Structure formats: structure tokens, C-alpha cells
Predict the 3D structure of the following.
Amino acid sequence: MKGKIKQFIALLVAIVLIAGMFPISMLFASDETFESTFTVIIDGSVKGDIFVTLTNSQNSEETRTEPVINGVATFENFVDLDNSYDIRITGMTGYEDYYCPNINFDGPSISFSASDFIPIEVIKVSGKIYDENGNLYRGGGTVSYSVYNEYNNYTVNFGGDGDFSIEVYKNVPYNFTFTTYDPKYDSVTLGPISSDKDINDLEVRLFIKTFSITTNASGNGTVSPSESSVLYGSNYSVSAKAEPGYEIEAFIVDGEPKADAVGKEEYTHTFYYITGNHTVDVTFSVKTYELEFWFNDDGKIMYESSQNVNNGGKIYVKGGESPSFTAIANPNYHISEVVIDGVKREDGTFDNKQTTYTYTFNNISSNHHIRVTFSINRYSINISSVGKGQVYAEGFSNGEKVNVEHGKPVKLKLIPEWDYDVKEVLLDGEAVTDYNLSGDGISYIYELPSVTSDHDITATFGDIETVEGDESDFYTIITKSLLDDYPKLSDDGVRIYSFKNKDASLTFKLNNGYSFICINGMIYYSQATITESILIEEIKVYKHFMVGRT
Amino acid sequence: MQQKIQIIIDKEAPVISDIPPMEWTNQDYTVKGTVIDKDTKDFPSSGLSRIVWSKRALTKEEVLAENTNKLSITNGEFSYTITTEQNNERFYFYAVDNADNVSVPKTIDVKIDKTKPEITELHLGKKMGLMAHRLLIS
């Protein structure tokens, strides 16, 4: 009862709304009452592209068609239970179309079971399957078939005898798809086929699958042409060849680039046992050449004046370009050698002044290997001597010129001959005085602590200065085991020292300020001790810049 | 003109020439010898000092220390007269130079017998046809 009231209220609202849309004269023109929802229920075993059409038996213009979805066709606000309807059901697979006129519905739905429909008769479709050579195919497979609208798919197997046999509904159009177990064959589709009687001689011809090899070339080069019918399981090669001066920039197979093809003039890729379509995209570009640089740490190399190159680094340049590089030595270093492609360059001085070196490869057409050697600056020390004496640089072989690394010291040893001394040392023509007597008391050391340029050093040796004096001015004689009454003068003026033979000695001990004593040409430092008989005819003592004679 | 200095450190011993042997004598006997001390420019001699004699062999130190039995050397010669009886007794002579180098000794066996023989007892006797004399000589 409550539901009726609600329906009534809803109806009133609808009337009011509709009344607003139509002229008042149209209100109350009909007294029909439509079911808000009326459903036609079809047995779930009945498949197909099913539609239900209801037509008012009293008014054929009042008709509506609805699809059967999940076994139900729904009609909203169409069915008036006070009317009778003609019902038509079409599209049922395996059943004749259903038609029944003047049905009075006694509720908001009506149901149909499969037995309410008349099954369609079946026919047999059979035949043989042949391979690409016309022989019976015995590899087995499946036959899929469906009505033309692709509803109700079925699949049956066919065996190794090359025959197939299928039951289908009479006069229903079917598509038959034959698929072999052997993957090399394409599926074969026949249809739509419909018949009102058996088909016994259907022949199916199998064809081996073919695939396409699609090639695309971009730039200056050629690639094998596309091929649209490459047989399943076969091999196929695609070759690319660049025009002169060009190379393969990219060789992409099914989207995957082949790294080993890059930079080559020709490249071939082979597809083995092809089972699908393939695509090869090749891009050609101007040939790229490689500049490889090797150098030590004491400088840098700039490519095109702006790009630092690492040791061992490579620069890639397009053919025909004219790239250049500049080697720059670190401070106090220079470029001592440049070797390009194994050939030592001679277009520079490659001495201390060679702090930079620039080279341009004109119209490049090959790879190049560049090796640059940076070396610390070296300086020449030209050594010369005047007079009786020698000058040499410690640590160097004797010679008039030594070669010294930047910042390294050079120590010159000035060795006057006996009875000679260093009179003057000139450094680049200027007299210097900071040369000192060495520990041996004979030679002098002159040191340049840090050489940063070339130098000329000249040492002049001259006679040593001589002074005369009494022997006591220069040395003291100390004797051991001297006989009594000695020394004494011989008749010819020789001063004789005679000794016992045990622990006998005579020592000339130099006074302060004297370093050497020369006895009969034999030189002693500080003192001379005589332990053998000797006739001394000459004694000289020496000190810096001076010799004393007794 | 620089004065020359001669330093003499003589390390070479003098050499005594061989002393001739003598026969028995009943007289004094003078032993004479010659001494050579090498003296060259390179090896100057310190000069001969003395002769030391002894009736036994001496060490170098004993020679140098000997202060009694000394003989002078004159012009490289020395002599020593023995006046006492010497019953073939050996005399050693050493030459010493001023640097205390001692020569190898030279020797001589001295045989001086100044004593007359003397008969001290005489016995006469006969024995089986043979006469034996016993002569005692002292």
C-alpha cells in the first residue's frame, strides 16, 4: 500500500513535469501505464548476438528492440501490462529466430528456456589440409570456428592424417581458422561459410610464414633493400655501406644499436632463423677520425684552444675538418719533443723557448696519434778558465759546458795548479767573490744555488803570492831521538839532523795561518813528519793566497 | 838561497868483516877488524860509534848497554890486544853506529898459552921386557 502511494506521488510529479513540457490539451490524452522495468530473460545456455524486439500488438508503431546482455533484455517504461505484445528473439546461435504474437504479460518479466526455441539443424564440414608443397599436412593443429560476428568460438583439434571434420549449424555463416602445431605455417582462415548441407571437400592450403625485413637508410650510404617475404626459419643479411668519406653513425636492429658497427664504412648484420619481422635503421654520417693524445704531466694540451685534453684522451673529428691543438708547458718547462704519427716534428726549436706548440691537421682524412713531451728547462753553464788551473762542475763530466735543470744548483770546483791560485771569478762578466776554499785546502768551491738561466763562468788562475821569511815564521821543528850535538852544520852548509834509529822523527809543524808544507815537492797538510833519511833541498809553506819560502 | 837540511835516520847496521882465525901462540894477540857502515845519498850513515866485545853472545840491548868492553873505531878499523892466556876461548865483536844499529857479531877463538910445560914427576920401571914410562906433566 505504501508502495502504491509512492508510485502515485511519483506519477503526479512526472505528470507535473511532463505537463510543463506539453500543451495542456495534450494532458490526459492517454491512460497507459508503463512498467518502469520489464525484462526478458533468456536461458543462459543460449548464446549468440541476441536481440529481443517487443511490438505493441495493437499499435505496430510502438516497438522497441533491446540487446540481451548476460541473458537479460531490459525494457524501461515501455511495457504496459494492459497491452499485448508481439515478441521476436533473433541472433541465438544454434536456434531458429523466435516469434510469438499477442502475448499478455502478467508481470514485469518473462523468461524463456532453451526448450522454448527450435534448434537449427547441423551440417558437417570436412576436408583435407595440404602443406606448401601440396602434400597432406600431418603435423596436427586446431580449427577454430565462429559465426561471422565472432560470437560463440569453438576449437577442435585435427590429427596427423591431414583430415578435419567439424559440425556446424546449417545456414549459419562461419569463419574457420586452421592453425598448425608447426609454428612455421601461417594460420589459414576461410569464411564466412554457410551451407544448408554438408561440405565434404573443403581444401585447406598451408603457407609458410613470411616476415618482413624493413630497412631504412639515412645519410650518405646504402643499405640492403627491404624484403617483405622472408620465410620462417631462414637467415637474412642486411648490409650497409657508406659512401666514400662517410661512415656508419648508427646501425639499429629492432631498436637496439649495434655498437660495433659505429665508425665502420661497411657492416653486415645477419638474422638467423627468422621467426618475426625485423627493422634495420642505418644512419650514415661524415666519417669521424680520432686524434689520440699522450703527454706527461708537466704541461697541458688544448684542443681548439678551449678544450682541455686528458693524457690518453681522444678527440673525434669529422672528415674534412681542420682541427688544431696547442701544447702548453707548465712554468719553467718546455716542449722538448712532439711526435705525430711516429714522426718527430722539426718545426720548432724544442728548447727552453718552446713553451707552446700549435699544430693543425688540414682537411683531416685519417686518425692521428700525437705524443708531446714536456721537459723541465735546462740551462747551459759555459765554463772557461784562464791560466794554470782547472774548473769543473761537480757531478758532471769534465767539459766546458754543463747542462743544469731549472732550479738545481751547480757547484764548480776551481783547482789551481801548485803554486797558483784563483785570482778572479766572473759570472756573466761580473766579478764575484763568494767562492770559498774547500776542505782540501787547495781547491775552491763556487756554487750557484738555483740555476734559472744560462750562465758564463770564467775563472782566472795566477801565480800565488810569495813572502820570504825565517823558517820560524812558518813552522816549528820537533824532533824525536835526535842525537846529541845535532843539528849541526856540515862544512858545505847543510844542516844535519841525525837520529837514533828507534822512534826517530822530525816534524815540521806549520804555524797558524799556514795549511800546507811542500818538502822537495811533496805536499803535506798542516805538518810533515819525516821518519826516513832525506836531504831536504826546498821547503815551501802555503796559506790562502800566499806561499812562504824559507 | 835556502839552506839544505840533511835528516839522517840510519836504519842500517854496520858490518864487521870476517876476523881471520889464529893459531896457538904464547904471545899477546891483537885482534884486528874492519867495520863498514854503508853511506849513500839515499841512506846516509849516522857514523860508526864503537866496537863492543864480549866472551859470550850478547843481545842488542846488552851490546848497547855495554859500557866497559868498548873499542874505538878509527877509519873503519879497530884492534884489541889480548894479553892473557886464552885456552881457545871465543871472543864476540859487535860494531855499533851512532844510530844504535848493532852489527852481526864476528868471532875469533883465541888460543894464547904463555905457560911453559913442566915435568913434575918421573917414574922408571920394567915390565915384561917392555919399559913403560909415565910422564906426568903438569
Q: What stands out?
A: The two ends of chain B are 78 Å apart (CA to CA). The first helix of chain B runs from residue 60 to 65.
